[in-house]
Write a structure and sequence with these properties.
This protein is mainly α. 72% of the residues lie in helices and 0% in strands. It has one domain. It is built from eleven helices and no strands.
């Protein structure tokens, strides 16, 4: 991987990781078009830029990361448990699902689901906007919704945001919960990958990795900030339409 390729993948990770459009799907497609093999070196680079994205969210939500917010983090860990259990048991079967064709179809299906949910969704006064008011039961249901993100192209952010909206959170509350939940989820996944594939970091292009890290951090920070402002005024319909169009284009190319 050269520096230009690292920058491109870093931009894609930073921009798509926290949007409901599947970062994994976009990176798989981008890697295919650039001729980058899904080998150990690529996996190592993905770990690096995922850590960058995590740090961006930590910086944005730093006021929530204190011992005073222990109840909130207990709820987030409650939502994390289903993913941790299923991911550990079925990790090999999950890896076998990865293909560009599956990504394309899940983009389309996910987009249709977003349009359907938005069509029937009406924010009510009783909907939760403050993420700290989320109940443990709601957190657990969001955790179950997150399981759909195991299917490539589904989007972890998309699954948790839709899950949040369906159990009584408003768009902002669902997005905040999704972003905060990404911290333990992505940290666990990235940490596991480091322990399992630590030898993949030997002999890599560290300059390209470092530049990609910075790019992913900056892009992720800006993206989350803009997204949080966007959803206070608009719905998720544009993301649903984008997913459908992107999926159709992929199928046409295939």
């Amino acid at each position: 991987m050269d520096i230009v390729q690292a920058i491109i993948i870093g931009v894609i990770e930073g921009f798509t990781e926290f949007l409901p459009i599947s970062s994994t799907g976009h990176m798989i497609v981008a890697s295919e078009f650039m001729g980058l093999p899904q080998d150990a070196a690529m996996k190592a680079y993905e770990v690096i830029i995922q850590f960058a994205a995590i740090l961006a969210v930590v910086l944005i939500y730093r006021d929530k990361i204190t011992f005073k917010k222990i109840d909130l983090w207990m709820k987030l860990m409650t939502a994390f448990v289903p993913l941790a259990i299923v991911g550990f048991i079925f990790k090999d079967q999950i890896k076998a699902l990865f293909s560009v064709e599956i990504v394309a179809w899940m983009f389309i299906i996910g987009g249709i689901i977003f349009l359907i949910v938005e069509h029937f969704y009406k924010e009510q006064p009783h909907h939760i906007s403050d993420v700290e008011e989320t109940s443990y039961k709601q957190a657990l249901w969001i955790g179950f919704a997150q399981l759909f993100s195991f299917i490539p192209g589904t989007s972890r952010a998309g699954a948790t945001i839709i899950g949040g909206m369906l159990v009584g959170l408003d768009r902002k509350g669902s997005s905040d919960f999704s972003f905060l939940l990404a911290i333990p989820v992505m940290s666990a996944v990235a940490g596991y990958d480091v322990l399992k594939h630590y030898d993949a970091f030997i002999g890599v292009n560290w300059l390209a990795f470092a530049i990609g890290f910075v790019v992913a951090f900056v892009v992720a920070y800006i993206t989350v900030k803009v997204f949080l402002r966007f959803i206070q005024k608009f719905s998720f319909v544009p993301f649903g339409i984008y997913r459908i169009v992107f999926g159709i284009v992929l199928l046409m190319i295939l």
